[in-house]
Design brief:
This protein is an alpha/beta fold. It folds into two domains: 134 residues, HAD superfamily/HAD-like (Rossmann fold); 77 residues, Transcription Termination Factor Rho, Rna-binding Domain, Chain A, Domain 1. Strand 4, helix 8 and strand 5 form a beta-alpha-beta unit. Helix 2 crosses helix 3. The longest helix has 23 residues. The protein is elongated, with a radius of gyration of 19 Å. The N and C termini lie close together (8 Å). The structure holds magnesium ion. The site of magnesium ion has 7 residues, from loops.
Length: 225
Amino acid sequence: MIKAIVTDIEGTTSSIRFVHDVLFPYSARHLEQFLRDRQARPDVAEQLAAVAETAGLESSDIAGIHDQLQNWIASDTKATPLKALQGMIWQEGYEKGAFKGHVYADAAEAIQRWASRGIRLFVYSSGSVAAQRLIFGYSEAGDLTPCFEGYFDTRIGHKKEPASYQTIQQTIGLSAEEILFLSDVPAELEAAHEACLGVMQLVRGEPVESQDKFPIVADFSEISV
Ligand SMILES: [Mg+2]
């Protein structure tokens, strides 16, 4: 019997396009102004210093730091200070209503229904925990964060490694068979399956690879637990 569900975000609860067409362009567009306006804020200064150290720059060299960050964006380098700064810029965007977190209607409905039935809900995404809280906190369906008990990102391990799912299972404190993992990526399902979790693939009609080893659903309304 399934007592907990761990879900991926991109391609599972939410459109892959939202991240690539809305979030990333927004942070790239606002990055330079954000660095200039917020450089004295301690959490921003900490990330500026981290970028400066990596790139061999002075932490007061905002233009140089901005160039380095734009290089990381262009080369899709998932550097920790870049992710942290993007998260801060997105938070401002969500707070001023520049966009809402995209969550498919079927996912929002199921998340609320499962939570009300006492099924424990968790997120496991390669986006930072801060970014995960924002997408559900400012979603088109309202604040969904009360439905979730916990959030995991790649700090606990990578999504294609079984050990990550063992850590999640131990943190949740249920047996592996009582936990269902939802994702659109077969290699993630394989890793979770190796850790003995139940798995299901979301294939939402976006161009993603499919498999015939695990159950496939088109949306959350087809998931019965
Ligand atoms: Mg995904």
